[in-house]
Specification:
Length: 549
């Protein structure tokens, strides 16, 4: 059955999920306030984690409660005609002051909100956004578009430097609907503030899915995915959000930016691709037409063991170049497999999966497993339900954002960095970047730090390595400790020819390396585009590019 075509004015509440009464997200960490475990529960969890990781936990702390948080007073107040969509209370400002990187979590845990926004605005429609941008442009107020606040690279932090009279965090949560579904073309028009679970629930009522599941899925939005060129859970083919775009609409200080809805076009530089990855510097993404598809009915998964990581990488290369296009092709080194309880630390693990809404996938799995066998891999318990190793990995993947809050409380540094490199350079790249991370950790905490690697996405011409860093934290110096490691690995990535980010975006944290990665002439072109749509330079200053003085 074809999904029905559905329309509704963008300002109406129809099709929206009813909010959970009185339920608020944490002002500093992941999840809701009522999900924060008590101190004894945290201590028990921290002790078990410390034992599993090999870091004895002796000093478990509690986060600074909101009532003890003191913020600098707001420097500005919204105009009277915008007051009804603006907030300046402590919770609103604190909860929009930081993203979700390790450094952000540490600061929030300790009650350090040094640069909170002066105003949090929650527009109800595009007209509200237009009025907000008009006020901010005229009064030299910086605007930080805010989706779910899950940035791990400083993309939503109001650190805009001097030259602005204040900052506004523009929260799009009120624009969160699936507005229209075209069942013939298999596409949907969705507002930018729609959170992953909400949009999937609405599409699921029609038997459809967007099929974009980043790890932050629970608390991230369609607009945020587009603005950051987010990568989803699936390892091959359609995985970055721009692969799903038909058209995008944004409100800029100079007016509306909307592309024609088409399956493809060769008409010059794509306006959709220009907004994808723009990180709020060009305007506020308000909605998009995206390609959707029927929910898959056929699935098969398997966990495949390999004696060593680099040998397994050669197998993954063969699979990625075979044309099989698995939905999941995640390779974990032995340490990463043990960390996620998917292995015992003696072997690398390939998490392999296929799915389809149209046909059985058994033959594709069989051929992929044959390639694994040719490279020395040993499959365990493959089938429609997957293996214990696959289930363990999946549970660890989904639970990781919650786990990080406990690790911060336990005094364990746990952070990641990711990149992409071509196959011909991977082995040397992996060795040198890993060595840089180990050296930086040794300088800050001795030889107790650990660095693991996995592939999140694979292409015929190269993988996207994702590194996990674990170490005893330096209490009171966690931010500086991680900054030193970040500096070392960022330098190594750029020196060895990789990208400073494959799917985490640039934000403020990656700017030093992004400036080295991009061509200088392109920086000038980007600056010119920004001046055309944001002549006052108020849109997310410091991200991607600095506006002209």
């Amino acid at each position: 059955m074809r999904p029905r075509r559905r329309r509704g004015p963008a300002g109406t509440p129809a099709n929206r999920l009813a909010p959970v009464s009185g339920r608020r997200r944490k002002h500093w960490g992941w999840g809701y306030e009522d999900q924060q475990p008590g101190l004894e529960q945290v201590r028990a969890s921290a002790a078990a984690l410390g034992e599993h990781m090999g870091f004895p936990v002796t000093d478990v702390r509690e986060p600074v409660p909101l009532e003890r948080v003191t913020l600098a007073p707001p420097r500005i107040a919204p105009p009277e005609d915008l007051a009804d969509i603006c907030a300046q209370d402590v919770y609103s400002r604190a909860s929009h002051a930081l993203g979700k990187s390790y450094s952000d979590l540490v600061r929030g845990f300790e009650g350090r909100f040094d640069l909170p926004p002066d105003v949090v605005a929650r527009p109800r429609g595009e007209r509200d956004i237009e009025r907000l941008l008009e006020w901010c442009s005229g009064d030299r107020v910086a605007v930080i578009p805010y989706g779910g606040g899950t940035s791990v690279v400083g993309g939503v932090t109001p650190d805009v430097g001097r030259g602005y009279n204040g900052t506004v965090s523009l929260d799009l949560a009120e624009l969160g609907r699936v507005v229209e579904v075209d069942g013939v073309s298999r596409a949907a028009r969705i507002q930018a503030g729609a959170f992953g679970p909400s949009l999937e629930r609405e599409l699921g009522e029609l038997g459809m899915t967007l099929r974009h599941f980043p790890q932050s899925f629970e608390f991230s939005t369609l607009g945020g995915w587009i603005a950051t060129r987010a990568g989803g859970h699936f390892a091959t083919v359609w995985t970055h959000i721009e692969d799903f775009l038909e058209s995008v609409r944004a409100i800029t200080p100079a007016g509306a930016w909307e592309s024609r809805r088409l399956p493809g076009s060769g008409a010059g530089i794509s306006p959709d691709r220009m907004l994808a990855g723009s990180e709020g510097v060009l305007g506020v993404i308000t909605e998009a037409w995206v390609r959707i598809q029927p929910r898959p009915e056929h699935r098969s998964s398997a966990g495949v063991r390999f004696p060593d990581f680099l040998g397994a990488a050669e197998c993954v290369r063969a699979i990625s170049q075979s044309g099989l296009n698995p939905s999941n092709c995640r390779l974990l080194d032995a340490g990463e497999a043990a960390l996620t309880m998917a292995g015992d630390g003696s072997h690398a693990l390939l998490v392999l999966g296929f799915e389809s809404s149209d046909h059985a996938v058994g033959e594709s799995m069989a051929r992929a497993l044959a390639i694994c066998a040719e490279h020395g891999g040993s499959a365990k318990d493959s089938g429609s339900g997957g293996s214990d190793a696959v289930s363990s990995w999946r549970e660890a993947f989904l639970g990781a954002p919650y786990l990080r809050d406990t690790l911060v409380a336990a005094g364990i540094l746990a952070e990641t960095f990711e990149t992409a490199i071509t196959w011909d350079r991977f082995a040397a790249f992996h060795e040198r970047v890993s060595a840089a991370a180990h050296r930086a950790l040794a300088e800050s905490c001795g030889e107790r730090g650990r660095v693991h690697c996995r592939f999140t996405h694979v292409y015929p011409d190269g993988p996207a390595p994702y590194f996990t860093v674990l170490a005893p934290a330096v209490r009171g110096g966690e931010v500086e400790q991680w900054a030193a490691v970040k500096q070392a690995v960022g330098d190594a990535i750029i020196q060895e020819g990789g990208t400073i980010t494959h799917h985490h975006a640039v934000g403020r944290d990656h700017r030093p390396w992004y400036d080295r990665q991009r061509p200088d002439m392109f920086a000038g072109a980007l600056r010119g585009a920004k001046e055309a749509v944001d002549p006052a330079g108020v849109m997310n200053p410091g991200v991607l590019i600095d506006p002209r003085p």
